[in-house]
């Protein structure tokens, strides 16, 4: 099958590689001329035979919105656009309506797999009309891991990105639990080989997972994580998951706590902890460590 891909970064470029290895004709465009097969979006569209399929892998928000709008002007009735980036699910209806005005279909795909996807395959969470999804199945089948799992047509437009949002919210909670366990083990006077404990958990335990495997890999490279600063950004999906949990009155305490922990990681000198220390001093006379006081 022929496919255009816009955005050839870490994931988009690897997806192009995986699809070409599977025998698909992939034409890629990127703002980096060294990565791009086409000079611009118009050139990309001109290289595709109708009915066309174009996969967008650019940052969410305005970059995606602008790319979808540009494609609406360039594509023809019967073509279809896939947004495989991390767009907020609520953007999908707007994108679909924008393209529908030109007779162009729209499919949203939440993609998981990161830099390992080229080798292992990508988990795909898809939203859109049945006919559009069915048409793209040769692409989905080549991108997903071999076997029964790794693909779902989750529902109509927006369902794919919604499923990916919840997936990433769960990921936040899992990572936080592993990280807290790491800190507790490292602080203990009983455990002398923390990396070996995590390695032992990779088989036969109920906490085994790919994230655990990746933490084991990180500890192999840096047993005390000395080379890594204790700062963790958030890419948006965690916030959106918590916002949805509030809207639907669904309790998600673990996911919410993991998001707030990332916020805390960005504070060199936490105002919250300053207030806590001041209160403890006021009501109980507990000592306060001043900035100039050695640790």
Automatic annotation (TrEMBL):
Designated name of the protein: 6-phosphogluconate dehydrogenase
Chain ranges of the 6-phosphogluconate dehydrogenase C-terminal domain: 160-287
InterPro entries (alphabetical): 6-PGluconate_DH-like_C_sf, 6DGDH_YqeC, 6PGD_dom2, 6PGDH_C, 6PGDH_NADP-bd, NAD(P)-bd_dom_sf, Pgluconate_DH
Keywords, in A-Z order: Gluconate utilization, Oxidoreductase
SUPFAM superfamilies with a match to the protein in the record: 6-phosphogluconate dehydrogenase C-terminal domain-like, NAD(P)-binding Rossmann-fold domains
Gene Ontology biological process terms, A to Z: D-gluconate metabolic process; pentose-phosphate shunt
Coiled-coil residue windows: none
Alphabetized GO MF terms: NADP binding; phosphogluconate dehydrogenase (decarboxylating) activity
Taxonomic classification: Bacteria, Bacillati, Actinomycetota, Actinomycetes, Glycomycetales
Gene3D superfamilies: N-(1-d-carboxylethyl)-l-norvaline Dehydrogenase, domain 2, NAD(P)-binding Rossmann-like Domain
Family per record: Belongs to the 6-phosphogluconate dehydrogenase family.
Organism: Stackebrandtia albiflava
Entry keyword Glycoprotein: no
Entries under NCBIfam families matching the protein: gnd_rel (TIGR00872), PRK09599.1 (NF007161)
């Amino acid at each position: 099958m022929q496919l255009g891909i816009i955005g050839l970064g870490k994931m988009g470029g690897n997806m192009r590689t995986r699809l070409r290895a599977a025998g698909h004709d992939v034409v890629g465009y990127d703002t980096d001329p060294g990565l791009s097969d086409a000079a611009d979006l118009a050139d990309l569209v001109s290289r595709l035979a109708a009915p066309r399929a174009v996969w967008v892998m650019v940052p969410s928000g305005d970059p995606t919105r602008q790319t979808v709008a540009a494609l609406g002007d360039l594509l023809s009735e019967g073509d279809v656009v896939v947004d495989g980036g991390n767009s907020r699910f609520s953007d999908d209806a707007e994108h679909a309506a924008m393209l529908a005005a030109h007779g162009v279909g729209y499919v949203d795909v939440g993609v998981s797999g990161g830099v390992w996807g080229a080798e292992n395959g990508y988990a795909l969470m898809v939203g859109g009309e049945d006919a559009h999804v069915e048409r793209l199945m040769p692409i989905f089948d080549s991108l997903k891991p071999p076997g029964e799992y790794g693909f779902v047509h989750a529902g109509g437009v927006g369902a794919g990105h919604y499923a990916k949002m919840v997936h990433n919210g769960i990921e936040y909670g899992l990572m936080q639990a592993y990280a807290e366990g790491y800190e507790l083990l490292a602080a203990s006077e009983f455990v002398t080989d923390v990396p070996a404990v995590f390695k032992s958990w990779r088989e036969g335990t109920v906490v085994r997972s790919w994230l655990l495997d990746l933490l084991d890999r990180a500890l192999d490279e840096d047993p005390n994580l000395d080379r890594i600063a204790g700062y963790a950004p958030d890419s948006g999906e965690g916030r959106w998951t918590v916002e949805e949990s509030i809207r639907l009155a669904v309790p998600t305490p673990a996911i919410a706590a993991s998001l707030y922990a990332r916020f805390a990681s960005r504070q060199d000198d936490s105002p919250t902890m300053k207030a806590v220390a001041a209160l403890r001093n006021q009501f109980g006379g507990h000592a306060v460590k001043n900035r100039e006081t050695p640790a």
